[in-house]
């Protein structure tokens, strides 16, 4: 069906009035109205999560990604300060380190703008290992990429699979050092536990990490938090970030 | 780094014991342990959402996808009964209707198994319309695909963009008839309102729809609910679903 001809709510195609399309703007934000309304959305989030520290950028993004104001209290930062893993993540983006996601869906959610980081996914690797051992394909894919050295100095993102988070924790225990870990697997079997273990191992070995507590989480959240690291890096690059925040990032 | 040599928690690579890799099983579920634990996960969900109706399959999946037992109460079914849109969705899968998602991330989350539906995304279409009018790219992409007739009889999935949901509502108002709509856009600007409008328009024009109330939602949820339609269809196909439920679906 077409949208030609005036409909009752202003979706007439080809009309030049800008106001006509107000309702079609959101966070896709390459078009005029889209960018206006993206800003409205972030304004609302900033009222829910006052932006007082650089870690608050991540807390705010968690609220934005989940649509839930309370989610800010479920985010955890592993490092000497809450800001530290966010700084480490932004620095890794500025250094164009690889972003390595667990599954295709998380990779699909990583923004293409504001960074030169290669983006790759783990899933699809390690099939032989999975078949031989019975471990999950995502866990095997993490172990396989780790064997190739992919996770050292990388931005390691686990959005879906608890077993991938557990595998990454083992890799860290065995000596791998990602630049930063973003881990938000979701669900009822080992999701919370896998993040707990990842936090413990990351803390022990000095690996900066951003994660959450509880059963919630998922691919959209992981992609959103990673994209916020890219946004912080962009703000550092173009000088629009608070100078104190950016102090060790230029 | 490698995982060779025994580590403290049994992630030794190349060990033949099946038990060794228990911790690496989740819902990726093509490997042995993965399938066992996927079943554990769904067992836990079934305790939280007793499976008494076919609509409960969708409620359960919403809990599974969000990791939140309370989410079952936020799901809404548009149709003569709660079961009706689930049946319509399963029927559309059995008829191999196209699955059309709003964005790439939702498309990436649609299972490749259990159906022969072509899967495509809207985003990437309608660029000229977006530029000319200032509407969002996702909204323009829906209007453009609709002009090509893509949404009639399709499984229309909106996981991310409120403006895409509003655009689809306009298309339905103008005569388009998807086989079923799955709509779970997330966020603080028009997400809840876009779903409300979509439900009103769908109800008025007899289009079956599955959606949620509130600000929460997102790509993972949309993909999960759509995949559950595929699972229901698979159960109908292989006869493992309750005969009464499957009555008008064979």
UniProtKB/TrEMBL annotation, chains A, B:
Gene Ontology molecular function, alphabetical: isomerase activity
Domain Cobalamin biosynthesis precorrin-8X methylmutase CobH/CbiC: 36-231
Pathway the protein takes part in: Cofactor biosynthesis; adenosylcobalamin biosynthesis
Protein keywords: Cobalamin biosynthesis, Isomerase
Pfam families: CbiC (PF02570)
Source superkingdom: Archaea
Gene Ontology biological process terms in this record: cobalamin biosynthetic process
Keyword Thylakoid appears in the UniProt entry: no
InterPro entries: Cbl_synth_CobH/CbiC, CobH/CbiC_sf
Protein family according to the UniProt entry: Belongs to the CobH/CbiC family.
Protein name, UniProt field: Precorrin-8X methylmutase
Organism: Halopenitus salinus
């Amino acid at each position: 069906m077409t949208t030609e001809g005036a409909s009752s709510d202003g979706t007439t195609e080809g009309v030049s009035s800008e106001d006509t399309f107000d309702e079609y703007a959101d966070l896709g934000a390459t078009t005029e109205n889209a960018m206006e309304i993206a800003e409205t959305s972030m304004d609302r989030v900033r009222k829910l999560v006052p932006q007082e520290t650089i870690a608050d950028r991540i807390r705010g993004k968690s609220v934005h990604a989940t649509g839930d104001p309370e989610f800010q209290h479920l985010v955890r930062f592993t490092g000497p300060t809450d800001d530290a893993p966010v700084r480490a993540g932004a620095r890794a983006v500025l250094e164009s380190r690889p972003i390595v996601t667990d599954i295709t869906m998380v990779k699909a959610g990583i923004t293409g703008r504001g960074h030169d980081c290669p983006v790759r996914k783990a899933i699809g690797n390690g099939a032989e290992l999975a078949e031989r051992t019975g471990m999950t394909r995502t866990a095997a894919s993490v172990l396989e990429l780790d064997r190739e050295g992919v996770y050292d100095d990388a931005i390691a993102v686990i959005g879906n699979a608890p077993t991938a988070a557990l595998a990454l924790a083992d890799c860290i225990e065995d000596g791998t050092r990602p630049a930063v870990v973003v881990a938000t697997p979701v669900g009822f079997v080992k999701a919370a536990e896998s993040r707990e273990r990842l936090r413990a191992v990351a803390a022990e070995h000095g690996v900066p990490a951003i994660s959450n507590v509880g059963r919630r989480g998922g691919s959209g959240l992981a992609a959103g938090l990673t994209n916020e690291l890219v946004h912080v890096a962009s703000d550092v690059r173009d000088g629009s970030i608070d100078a104190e925040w950016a102090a060790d990032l230029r």
